[in-house]
Design a protein that fits this description.
Largest sheet: 2 strands, antiparallel
Number of strands: 2
Oligomer: single chain
Strand order of the largest sheet: 1-2
Number of domains: 3
Structural class: mainly alpha
Strand content: under 5%
Length: about 300
């Protein structure tokens, strides 16, 4: 019988109670005690002396240290056979009676943390709700998650119809999984994008260089070459500098005629003489250079 009991106790695994996180100390202590008593019942341990010893053993070093401090301070922790007084003393230390209104306010101020899943947030809310004495804890948790979760998609979905907490948790898991898959796909896409962008930039740069090299000046009209869909303005035109066809005077490579330079004073004298005589020849003399000048300017583009 003793050997069988030893084998059973060897299979009993209860984690030590963590006293470092004081913000959730009370609800976690309540949960830990429930798990401990379930284990005592499951292993059929009913003797108060043994339950008291196991309470301190599985509670861990911090619980035992707190218990000794209570005993030294004169708190009634009972004798070695009194499990209830030992448990009550520890409960008064770790989970004292709280103001339920204050605890409810703390519960309402909770928000989902950036890296916290909905399931983790739900567990944290349930721990806090343990001291709030809610009539329907699941309903309160459901409302709080809808109010303060980080996902607008989940919130909008939850407000479309009447749902239960389980429905919300299932939907949240599906959304979180889809976001995870999307990040993985986007991450793979981003790894290949720099090479694609470099290739595009390289092609664009090459095209620009080729375009710049191909952008020349037309030797016939002085404009940009090639002209594209429009014909060259100099096509079929006569140069007023050299008299040649197919180019304009502004790009003519021939020297200006000395004759034109010499005829200019004579033309001026002719015009002056005709004006003095009032003859009709003056009009012809004025018109000829005027027409040439106008025509010349008409071919400058």
């Amino acid at each position: 019988m003793t050997l069988l009991l030893f084998i059973k106790m060897d299979n009993l695994h209860i984690p030590h109670f963590d006293t470092t996180d004081t913000s959730t100390l009370a609800p976690r202590w309540t949960t830990w005690v429930e798990d401990f008593e379930f284990a005592m019942t499951g292993f059929n341990i009913t003797a108060n002396k043994r339950k008291r010893a196991l309470l301190l053993h599985y509670g861990g070093p911090n619980v035992k240290s707190t218990f000794r401090g209570l005993a030294n301070a004169g708190i009634d922790v009972g004798d070695e056979n009194d499990y209830k007084k030992a448990l009550d003393a520890l409960t008064a230390e770790f989970a004292p009676q709280r103001n339920k209104i204050v605890e409810s306010i703390k519960f309402r101020r909770q928000k989902q943390l950036p890296e916290e899943s909905i399931a983790q947030y739900c567990t944290r809310l349930r721990d806090l709700a343990a001291t709030c004495d809610f009539h329907d804890t699941n309903r309160e948790i459901l409302t709080q998650i809808i109010l303060s979760c980080t996902s607008n998609t989940l919130r909008k979905w939850a407000l479309e119809k009447e749902i239960q907490l389980k429905d919300l948790l299932d939907k949240a898991r599906a959304l979180e999984l889809s976001r995870q898959h999307a990040r993985e796909i986007e991450g793979n896409s981003n790894n290949s994008q720099p090479q694609e962008r470099d290739y595009v930039n390289k092609v664009s740069s090459t095209d620009r260089q080729q375009f710049q090299r191909s952008k020349k000046t037309c030797f016939a009209c002085g404009g940009d070459f090639p002209h594209g869909e429009t014909p060259c303005p100099a096509t079929g035109r006569k140069c007023y500098n050299c008299g040649g066809l197919g180019h304009l005077a502004k790009v003519c490579r021939s020297k200006k005629k000395e004759k034109q330079q010499q005829e200019t004073p004579a033309a001026v004298n002719l015009v002056t003489s005709d004006l003095q005589d009032g003859g009709a020849a003056s009009n012809a003399a004025i018109a000829e250079p005027h027409d040439e000048s106008d025509s010349e300017e008409g071919y400058v583009f």
